[in-house]
Amino acid sequence: MDRSEFFSAQAGRTIDVPRHATARFGIGDLVKHRMFDFRGVIFDIDPVFANSEEWYESIPEDIRPHREQPFYHLLAESDDSSYVAYVSQQNLIADASGGPVDHPNVTELFEQFEAGRYRMRRTLTH
Prior knowledge:
With about 130 residues, the chain is mainly β. It contains 2 helices and 9 strands; from the N terminus they run ββββαβββαββ. β8 and β9 (about 115-120) form a beta hairpin. The chain is globular, with a radius of gyration of 15 Å.
């Protein structure tokens, strides 16, 4: 399989990735976590795990996701807080609630919520 590389500032290293990866979700999609009670809107996608080793090792081994899958950056919300989450594809499902996400940074990245998804601000797209 053809491979490529990119530098991840979050991981602080170069990441080896397949030249082609298939993401189940897209930027602006609403998702929720399979095991934990939070939902969010996707604002970035890594084709494979591209965070720090400390972050990865902090996940209990029995639920640690494999690295060779897309990982999503979310503006997330739970009942009592909002935060940025980094979640593997295997741990996300589509959020069928249809309502907007209550996160203070949503308007910085997205300009519109319509038909159950967000549209990224045009100034942030390429």
